Amino acid sequence: MKFEVTIIGCGSAIPTVSRKGSSQLVNHREKYFLLDCTEGTQYVLKELKISLQRIDHVFITHAHADHFLGLPGLLSTMSLLGRTKEINIYAPEEIETFIHTFLTCTRASLSFKVNFKKLNFNSPETIFENKELTIESVPLLHSTNCCGFIFREKKKPRPMIASKISEYIIPHYLISGIKEGDDLILPDGKVIPNHKLTEEPQKSFSYAYLTDTSYHEEIVPQIQGIDVLYHEATFTDELKTRAKQTKHSTAKDAAKIASLAQVDQLYIGHFSARYRSLDVFMEECQSIFKNSHLTFDRQTIKIY
Ligand SMILES: [Zn+2]
């Protein structure tokens, strides 16, 4: 079982040879979630031998080209490969218009249904939930409506202490309830508290993807204690005025947010094409938040 994030692109609006625009693939226990879909996303997925058809949920932060231009190509390829499974796209409404326009102009149709789910940019919402995970939106502060996303694992089941099953002759049908925290009531009415039957559950992990945004302290309570935070850092401190003008963050801004939110690890990306070396980003981040890391294209971050 794994929870990992593959960086498809860590660049910003202008791609470079080594850095595509924004896109990431989250693999949570073999369920695939695509975050943004920059130009060329499908090529990188192919190169990494990741099956496109396993992606059932796509999350687009905002309608800036470097975050969604790969979407028509990706959907077309899925269709040409004969996909029949529905796909869910969580995005600003402009993305739905864009995909419809693309299909009209190319006189094409898709072999599967696309469910567009409009994001709410005014307040956080839980936009996805399965047995193991929730995904929340995080309204950000950018030059257009923009949301980040938080993946939070739900509380994990408490492992049974094997010897207790035979000791109390626990019937099979009670086991899943006990793993969820139920006490055991014996035939004579005696109650065996849950903590005597089970062990502490494994830790539940979380991942936040926050791009694009100005320095935005209001998000801190929502991301408090996140295990792995990806925060955009388009510029170094030298260009902080430019960062403010374009509603982006500097490396120091990202580190300040990580520090205030007491996250475990910070990864930064969305680097401006003007930077060849990223050393200054790292120095600036680590001067504020020690556990900071750069991202690079095709890197996989293992949450566990
Ligand atoms: Zn943007």
Task: Explain this structure.
The structure is a single chain. The chain has 304 residues and is of the alpha/beta class. It is globular and about 75 Å long. Helix 1 (41-47) links the parallel strand 3 (31-35) and strand 4 (55-59). Helix 8 runs parallel beside helix 9 (279-286). The protein has nine helices and 16 strands. The mean pLDDT is 96. Strands 6-5-4-3-2-1-16 form a seven-stranded mixed β-sheet. The structure holds zinc ion.
What is the topological layout?
Layout: E1 3-10, E2 22-28, E3 31-35, H1 41-47, E4 55-59, H2 71-80, E5 87-91, H3 93-105, E6 114-118, E7 126-129, E8 133-139, E9 147-153, H4 162-167, H5 172-179, E10 184-185, E11 191-192, E12 206-210, H6 220-223, E13 228-232, H7 240-246, H8 251-260, E14 265-269, H9 279-286, E15 292-294, E16 300-302
Parallel strand pairs: 3-4, 4-5, 5-6, 12-13, 13-14, 14-15
Antiparallel strand pairs: 1-2, 1-16, 2-3, 7-8, 8-9, 9-12, 10-11
Helix pairs in contact: 8-9
The chain binds zinc ion (ZN).
Zinc ion binds at residues 62, 64, 142, 212.
Name the beta content range. Answer: 25-35%
What hetero molecules are bound to the protein chains?
zinc ion
Tally the beta strands: 16
Nearest-integer average pLDDT: 96
Question: What share of the residues lie within helices?
Answer: 10-25%
Describe the sheet with the most strands: 7 strands, mixed
Supply Rg.
22 Å
- Any low-confidence stretches, pLDDT <50, length ≥5? none
What general outline do the C-alpha atoms trace? globular
Structural class: alpha/beta
Oligomer: single chain
What pattern of helices and strands is seen along the backbone? EEEHEHEHEEEEHHEEEHEHHEHEE
What strand order characterises the main sheet? 6-5-4-3-2-1-16
Distance between the termini: 8 Å
User: What's the tally of helices?
Assistant: 9
